[in-house]
Amino acid sequence: MSFEQAQALDNEYPVLSSDFNIPTFKSVGLKPTKTANEDDQVTYLCGNSLGLMPKSTKDAILNELDAWSARGVESHFNHPTSTCWMDIDLPVVPKLAPIVGALEEEIAIMGSLTSNLNALMVAFYKPIGSKTKILFEKNSFPSDYYAIYNQIKLKGLDPKENMIQLKPRLGDAYYIKTQDILDTIEQNHEKIAMVLLPGIQYYTGQLFDIAKITSFAKKYDIIVGWDLAHAVGNVPLKLHDWGVDFATWCSYKYLNSGPGGVSGIFVNTAHGSNVEDEYIPRLAGWWGNNSTKRFQMLENFEPIKGALGFRQSNPSVVDVVSLKSSLEIVEKFGGIGKLREKSIKLTNFLEHALQNSRYYITPEESFDKTSDFPEFTILTPESSDERGAQLSLLFFPRTSETRKGIMDEIFNYLRDNGVICDERRPDVIRLAPVPLYNTFADVYKAVQVLESAFEHLSILQ
């Protein structure tokens, strides 16, 4: 892959990098290099961890600080310039619904990812009779594991006996095959109360077949939930059409809402009754109660129909407007479909460039690797239908008691030379080109720096 090819693709596919604040060598605290001065922008391939800040976000936040300064509590009902704080989240719902493929009444903007996951499991995990187990993945994100483990304990059950964990076949692939998931459901359907999986696996970058897995599990009346932290804003979703029961996500990765930004939930309309004694018992609060009666302070919980009825407290105004400013850029780009179209091209370009490296080995070759020659493979599935923007690279030789792995040295070299990505110890680096602000030239440069990193390894000296 050549730089000329990258330039040609950049002329073909739009980018809105000018709408974002892109860090420079100086702002990150990096020293200039032979090819970059302190004012040059870094190559930021870390949107899978934290998206870049839209330039419009600062003004959006300052507008709310000005409202607080000018009117104090009055801005809840009498905002000087925009939406009153009482309803600050409501205009954002229509912008988010098409990104996750939901009806507007199935969406609520609230809380944080793990707190929402716990709240939804309280409502939906109902072990009855022999159906007590939760099916999820081995090596899931730790926060998910902790939530699942303790939700089982809260029901008075033994987690060790009520967790079914999926993992890749040893020596076959680094990710879980869809058929293995379906087979496990088939074999254990009389014992499974809930399936809870990530839309995209944080470590490998695998995009699960949400539609097929959900449909298969629903045949056995199993509740199906999804942690969409790495999927929302990354790949198109159709949660309503797929019959997903519930889902939650964070917004600070591909939705660029800022560190610790507000989360969101999806609750299928099949579970949205607000009729007394028919609604799903839940972790409740006054913001989920009938808004026309909210300030009557009644001892009568009458949840708003749909996902809004799962809200507990009023959302952070600053968080909500930060999310809104980013979603407006998504709309400007043309929506999630246009983003995905470019993302596939961008990630394929990255993959092909990596595979042309003299240090690349195929996943099949990596299972039998025995030499100490420095190399890497790609953990992420090769099919675009099975991945989003992220490619996860596994480095050899791997960390062991006898020899330190090379990942740290590679990672530090990338960063020192202005390629910002992230590591997952002990041996993985994740690269995620984001179509909103990354270019094909960014990808080309990152692979060139990676190649140079191998050449500078102390192991080769």
How does this model look, in words?
The protein is of the alpha/beta class and 461 residues long. The protein folds into two domains: 165 residues, Aspartate Aminotransferase, domain 1 (Alpha-Beta Complex), CATH 3.90.1150; 270 residues, Type I PLP-dependent aspartate aminotransferase-like (Major domain) (Aspartate Aminotransferase, domain 2, 3-Layer(aba) Sandwich), CATH 3.40.640. Helices cover 34% and strands 12% of the residues. The strands form four sheets. The protein has a seven-stranded mixed beta sheet with strand order 4-10-9-8-7-5-6, sandwiched between helices. The protein has a four-stranded antiparallel beta sheet with strand order 11-12-15-14, covered by helices on one side. Helix 9 links the parallel strand 7 and strand 8. Helix 5 runs parallel beside helix 6. The longest helix is centred in the last third of the chain and has 20 residues. The model has no long low-confidence stretch (mean pLDDT 95).
